[in-house]
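Reviewers of the previous submission asked for a worked example of the structure-prediction workflow described in the proposal, so we include one complete record here. The input consisted solely of the amino acid sequence. No template or homolog information was supplied to the procedure at any stage.
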Amino acid sequence: MKDRPASWRMPTPKQMEKLTGSMGKKAPRERSLAPKDDMPDEYWRALLDAHDQTAASGGSSLVQRLCEIPQHVLRVSCRRCERIVEIQKVDAVRLYGQQASWKEVGQRLLDNTCQNRTGRHEEDGCWPAFGPV
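From that input alone, the workflow returned the following structure tokens.
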């Protein structure tokens, strides 16, 4: 091992200035937002665009009825015990009806096979996480 300080790997300030000058224009420095400042218009446009796309695609899959969901296999997992339950849409419609919401069906599927019973209402049962197939 050699006895050199770590600074031998870093360019000197003069070399750094030369490098930034050779790269072209300097990057414009934007002022960061303070907590009391208003959010930029680009931020709000991006949020509204995302909301419009969700609304155009039929909204959240959790509030959709089973007859409105295009997937053939529905999957729900438990965030607590990491168990995954899948059911075909045809079977879900047969068991719970076409007008049942996916959120209710997923919760029932997990609750029917839950293995984390503590006896306390707040802690009992599985915690559903609805994800794509």
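The chain is about 35% helix and 10% strand. We consider this example representative of the routine output the project will generate in years two and three.
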